[in-house]
Amino acid sequence: MTFITYFVSKVDVLLCLSACIAFLIYWLNGSKKSTRNMPPGPTPLPLIGNLHLLDRNKPYKSLMELSEKYGDVFTVQFGPKKVVIIAGYKAVKEALVTQADDFGQRVDLPVFKLISNDKGIVFSNGESWKSTRRFTLSTLREFGMGKKSIEERIKDELNAFIENIKSHNDKPFDATIILNSAVSNIICSIIFGKRFEYGDRTFIKLIELTAENAHLIGAPKLMLYNYFPLIGSLLGVHKKLQKNTEDLINFALEFIQMRRREFDENDIAGYIDAYLKKQKQELTNAVTYFDDENLVFTILDLFAAGSETTATTLHWALLLMAKYPEIQKRVQEEIRTHIKPGQMPTVDDRRSMPYTDAVIHEVQRFANIVPLNLPHTTANDVYFRGYCIPKGTEVIPFLTSVLYDKSQWKTPYAFNPNHFLDASGKFVRQEAFMPFSAGRRACVGESLAKMELFLFFTGLLQAFTFHPPAGVSREDLSLDPVLGLLLTPTPHLICARHNS
Known about the structure:
Blueprint: H1 3-7, H2 13-30, H3 59-70, E1 73-78, E2 81-86, H4 89-98, E3 105-106, H5 110-116, H6 126-142, H7 148-166, H8 176-191, H9 201-217, H10 220-227, H11 229-235, H12 239-261, H13 271-281, H14 292-323, H15 325-338, H16 354-367, E4 376-377, E5 382-384, E6 387-389, E7 394-397, H17 399-403, H18 446-463, E8 464-467, E9 481-482, E10 488-489, E11 495-498
Parallel strand pairs: 2-7
Antiparallel strand pairs: 1-2, 3-4, 4-7, 5-6, 8-11, 9-10
Helix pairs in contact: 2-11, 7-8, 7-18, 8-9, 8-14, 9-12, 9-14, 10-11, 12-14, 14-15, 14-16, 14-18
């Protein structure tokens, strides 16, 4: 298999030949970067670098194997591009927290530029990123993120969620869309100042486009576009992602225009309204970062980050409960002990429910939904653990290696809630629990996600017992993930028996 067919099959021979010639020129130019005192790594092959060493369906697994051989800091070459991998809890924490300024920039990959145009809060850098992130964090807190006020919104959505699942009457169903809808409505209530009905066609399309983009960004074909942009462009592997992004942008623009027509600075209903008010305040400033394009991409960042990650984690949680009924039963016993019949869970209940809290944390650790993290880059030459990482080098703070670090977890590759419990059954925080990343680029919605995970998970297990469809054993339930930017469960059906 050639490196082209590694990514793409059945392409036109002439087009491939032209692409390879263009790539050869790109590689000759790109491979000139100094390698003096860079971290060690496998010897790259001409043109393809170390791509032959990666399992394209599980690249994180290949990188784990390389870290065993080359240590906590090593270099791999993706085509012409050298990438430094930082592996293990101690090294990742040192990079992202201790040397936060050195590793705080987001790398400028072609695919990131395509979906953000250097705007928003996830893929941007510099003063634009700082100003937008600061404003966004402040505004999200004003709308209740991490506070008691947002709890009621989550509980209202949980009621609608439960009613929808009841309608399936313990028959097999795919939980993907309903999970995404319920979780997305929380961030929608913050961004847009409203929730959507689950059957709303526009809402479903928004969810589907966001989910598809999350899958495409991490797919092997888009790796081709990232590391061989000339070939990727000629082969058009980015076109679907580009079209989806254009549709998402148009949705955001339409909503912004509607909110602008109805804007009342004395009645700020959501993030968009708060941003429009900020724009008005910035009119007299010579320089402002609060333009409409930045608003559009911030909306898309917030929606994706506030829906996909939490919904995917809950999807794994339900699958794991069906896979391990003894763990599900123990959670339900704790729920019955601490929450009165007819009452919904509250955030305060978490303190008295250590086992449930441990299970949720272990789902996040075990599911490992963002295995490679979002890559960073070095703003200057960086000296790290005896090596010199040149300015502009792509750096991957490898989250899989943290969540599966053998020095931090007793059984890293097993689903084991005891990772978060002491001998007396009390909940124990673990420093190596880093699913939201860390440092300057940590997820802005971490506190909201934690609240959602506890309330949704506890509320669902209070109402239902999840199990495989008839004729499917729990051993048949696959824990192999589908590769994308996020690791999602293999498509499956599940049943929810109401706990009447």
